[in-house]
């Protein structure tokens, strides 16, 4: 496969993050807003999606599909990032400015994934 290094980096990061959903589920369960029912299922599905989409990025025939999937996933998990900013316990005691900076970072990650949609 002759894909750009930054695509391999993105795939690696999503696969690693997905695996972490299963290694440290408590961390992710803590940031799922209480309005969402069945946080364990949400954690499992989002972790599996990250692993699957990260893997699919590595194949030219599925790269575009995976990139659109990652964009959808980033939009779907935005409420968790917002909840981290709003709720002290969900924010792991991180400074508010760091939690605030994470919010527009989603736009950067969406733009990065968008680069592989065509």
TrEMBL record:
Source organism superkingdom: Bacteria
Transmembrane parts of this sequence: 6-22, 42-59, 65-85, 97-114
Keyword tags: Membrane, Transmembrane, Transmembrane helix
PANTHER family (alphabetical): DOXX FAMILY MEMBRANE PROTEIN (PTHR36974:SF1), MEMBRANE PROTEIN-RELATED (PTHR36974)
Name of the protein: Uncharacterized membrane protein
Native species: Flavobacterium saccharophilum
Taxon lineage: Bacteria, Pseudomonadati, Bacteroidota, Flavobacteriia, Flavobacteriales
């Amino acid at each position: 496969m002759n894909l750009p290094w930054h695509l391999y980096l993105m795939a690696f990061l999503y696969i690693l993050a997905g695996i972490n959903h299963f290694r440290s589920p408590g961390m992710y369960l803590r940031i799922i807003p209480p309005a969402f029912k069945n946080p364990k299922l949400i954690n499992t599905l989002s972790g599996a999606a990250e692993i699957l989409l990260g893997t699919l990025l590595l194949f030219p025939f599925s790269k575009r599909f995976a990139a659109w999937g990652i964009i959808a996933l980033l939009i779907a998990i935005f409420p968790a990032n917002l909840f981290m900013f709003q709720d002290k316990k969900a924010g792991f005691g991180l400074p508010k400015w760091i939690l605030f900076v994470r919010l527009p970072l989603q736009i950067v990650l969406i733009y990065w994934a968008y680069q592989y949609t065509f």
